[in-house]
Amino acid sequence: MAIGTATLLFSGVSTSAQDGAASLSTRMQDAARAGGGVVRLEPNQRLVVNDGVVLPRGVTLDLAGGELVAVLRSTNAAGVRMLSGSAIRNGTVSVISRGTPGEQSGAHAAILVGALYSENASPARMSPFAAPSDWRISGVSVRSDKTSGAAGIQIMGGANRGLIENVTVLDSDRMAGGIMLDWGTVGPVSSADVRGTAAAFARGQGWTTHPHDIDIRGVKIGRLTRSAGSGGGSVAVRLSGVHDMRVSGVVVEEVTQAGVIHHAGDLGYEFARAADAPRAHQGIVVENIDIRRTAQYVVWSDSHADNVARAANEGYRPRLAPIAATDIAFRQISGNASPRSIAQYGIRVNHQRGGSFSDIRVSGFDFGFFIDEQVYGLYIVRPYADESRRAAYSIGHPSRPPQDIRVSNPRSSGSSDGSNLVYIGNSADVRVVGAKALRARIAPSARRAKVD
């Protein structure tokens, strides 16, 4: 089904743009009523619409090599929002952000899957966008010019069984991230009020939702050069409060914060329902990633429900340990520090139980691998740190020591003083095997450390 041959251009409040949105919506609703199908633009068309597009259940929007331009004014609008069984493919989605966009990265994003924070007001007032499943994003390029930062693709809450493949995130000096996945909420859930949220959870009135069973593969991310002073800069892929996730085959030209961030989220799975809680932070694989330039991190992994931990310090009794156990696996990842950048850590891990890194190569950072506070049971296999300024491998924390860390066959190269240094600070049971070519320095506070 084609929606017409005219190219619709936007200038001011254009009737043609409004008509274009109405025409596209009509065709998609016709397809949905027929039980699903494909709505296809004319080849290479540029279609401008006002206030975004919603893909109905079972409907595929084929952009046919063209561009969908969404001019957004509503606070929480997005270029394209998806329902279960919907798909978008073969073209570009661009957002022109106007009005007063919301601060969430999903607000004025090019593509949004799932309900934003506050949209699921209560169990009886759920958003129509809550927990979509079996959706597909394929062969699409994305961008947004939202000044305060948006994602190219934002996945929220309980969105599940999705596929993102062969996607390109175009260059931007404004976007907060390429592909960003975040936990969501139902009812009165507040990171700032853990006790109140616990009471709502006990009454069945509020809980958290978590993206899961999603495959992200074959992604190209351009130069995301948002200032590092603007909410942390830009990140290529962010995983926050997710489980059963695979990210593979990602090439990133440049970011100003991190290539990949994995966080537990403010509340972790403390208030997740029975369907999600047993899988908390499990089944996550990140592999075959090339971060060509990053200002701060190649990978930063932190499995700490920090707001829950703060509440526990004030007497709250958590249902789950604030520092989560995870089996997250990072494999075959490379990354380089940007010239004249902050360039602190190639790989940083803190507040985490479990996880592994294998065949990781980083170059040009202060610390190649930095294993920080409250990390337990981490395995690192065949790492390579090149041109590290202070230490190729640093394991320790002054007051909250990492424990049970295993590093196997580490390598390094470079001419600086720290380029071949393994430093073990305040820690317990750190074992580095196959490091005879490296220089080791072990602090007196390192208990049962061994380097051989």
Structure in a nutshell:
With 452 residues, the chain is mainly beta. 8% of the residues lie in helices and 45% in strands. The strands form three sheets. It has a 20-stranded parallel beta sheet that branches. It has a 13-stranded parallel beta sheet with strand order 3-6-8-10-12-16-18-20-22-25-28-31-33. Strands 13-14 form a two-stranded antiparallel ribbon.
Q: Biggest sheet, open or closed, and with what strands and sense? A: 20 strands, parallel
**Computed structural class:** mainly beta
Q: What is the CA-CA span between the terminal residues?
A: 67 Å
What average pLDDT do the residues reach?
93
Basic shape: globular
Radius of gyration: 23 Å
Helix content: under 10%
What's the β-strand tally? 35
Instruction: Indicate the proportion of strand residues.
Output: over 45%
- Residue stretches low in confidence (pLDDT < 50, at least 5 long) are 1-18
Number of helices: 3
Describe the fold and architecture.
There is one protein chain. 53% of the residues are buried. The longest helix has 19 residues, at 15-33. This protein has 452 residues and is mainly beta. It is globular, with a radius of gyration of 23 Å. It has helices at 15-33, 194-202, 306-313; strands at 37-40, 46-50, 53-55, 59-62, 67-72, 80-82, 87-97, 111-113, 136-144, 151-156, 160-169, 177-182, 184-186, 207-209, 212-224, 235-240, 243-255, 258-263, 284-294, 297-302, 329-337, 345-350, 352-353, 356-363, 367-371, 375-381, 384-386, 391-395, 403-408, 411-413, 421-424, 427-433, 439-442, 446-447, 450-451. It is built from three helices and 35 strands. It starts with 14 loop residues before the first helix and ends with a strand. The strands form three sheets. The protein has a 20-stranded parallel β-sheet that branches.
